Amino acid sequence: NAVALIFDVDGTLAETEELHRRAFNHAFARHGLDWHWDRAAYRDLLRVTGGKERIRAFHARQQVASPLSDADIAELHRIKTAHYAELIETGCCPLRPGVAELLTAAKARRQQIAIATTTSHGNIDALLSRALGAGWALDFEAIVAGDDVRHKKPAPDVYLEVQARLRLAPSDCVAIEDSANGLVAASRAHIPVLITRSIYFRDDDFSAARFVLDELSELTDEHDTEKQPHAQ
Ligand code: XBP
Ligand code: MG
């Protein structure tokens, strides 16, 4: 029974990680690096959340003649982010099945909706303005991104910040996530979690989740996301 639904973005609202991966590879090539992250490597690298952090972690494992500075990493990430927006703009990354319907149903039930993600406000806006239209953010009560908090997932910071902004108890919320990192982050904030399995995290351990679905289109009343807000 939830008063608020808190959505992760990457992998949950849309299968964005392939676009992130392509955008990273584009940035490496543009920067003259011979790095290439294939799907198997990227699956492993996704354990490190955050794009800058992921580049830094990979860099630390390489034998590079001239190490990258923080400014190089920031520049790589800037190129990556710009290319990601271009890829999203082509329209090749629709919302996952059941996402638009759940957002509409939540609005009709006067449930609050919020976002707790590792990615940036710019990337969320690129995805959701394409999928939901320019005014999409008006429907969301709180939007907390990775750089808004001190520690990214699996730390609970983004979830604690959303909760503080909504002024709700964790048990009044449901987090909708696709990864073990996301599950751990929400669980550390004591928020129950509904998992919608995505391409890259299919084999993660979701035993701590309240529910595990393949798609949000499988949601039914028994999944408990439907409590009306208390009358004021
Ligand atoms: C998503 C991520 C992000 C994206 C890249 O995690 O880990 O790092 O891969 O985003 P979650 P940026 O879905 O658990 O929030 O490059 O913008 O950091
Ligand atoms: Mg995710």
From TrEMBL:
Which controlled-vocabulary keywords does the entry list? Hydrolase
Carries keyword Cell membrane?
no
Q: SUPFAM superfamilies attached here?
A: HAD-like
Q: Which Gene3D superfamilies match?
A: HAD superfamily/HAD-like, Putative phosphatase, domain 2
Q: Name one GO molecular function term.
A: hydrolase activity
Q: Which superkingdom does the taxonomy of this entry point to?
A: Bacteria
Is Transferase among the key words of this record?
no
Fetch the NCBIfam families from UniProt. HAD-SF-IA-v3
Protein name in UniProt: HAD family hydrolase
The organism of origin for this protein: Bradyrhizobium zhengyangense
